Amino acid sequence: MGKQIVEKQKQTKWGSGFIDRMSRDLQSEFPDMKGFSVRNLKYIRQWFVFYFSKNAIGQQLVAQLTQIPWGHNIAIISKCKNADEAIFYVQKTIQNNWFLHII
């Protein structure tokens, strides 16, 4: 979804309200699902750009990223300076079972 957001934003004009519109459309299309707020869509975009824009990860790391809760992913990318540092914390979260504590 992050990749789709980035690609669609490239096709729209700055200030077009694309993410706001996407949020409303997704919430309307999937009323029983959560996670389509403007704020969360921005986090999804940030997560994608953080890890994928520099080809920082491969399939193995993608599998690791999906093992930890979304809130942990957000905390990690919000506090880390680069993908290498974030990957370290993702791996330590899994190794040490840090699922109850956000760094």
Task: Describe the overall structure.
The protein has helices spanning 2-11, 18-29, 38-52, 59-65, 70-79, 83-96. It is mostly helical. It starts with a helix and ends in a 7-residue tail after the last helix. The mean pLDDT is 87.
Architecture blueprint of SSEs:
Blueprint: H1 2-11, H2 18-29, H3 38-52, H4 59-65, H5 70-79, H6 83-96
Rounded mean pLDDT is 87
For the biggest sheet, the summary is:
none
* Topology pattern, helix = H, strand = E: HHHHHH
Number of helices: 6
In which range does the helix fraction lie? Answer: 55-70%
Distance between the termini: 25 Å
Low-confidence stretches: none
Describe the structure using short key phrases:
mainly alpha, 6 helices, 103 residues
Summarize, please.
The chain has 103 residues and is an all-alpha fold. The chain contains six helices and no strands. The longest helix is centred in the middle third of the chain and has 15 residues, at 38-52.
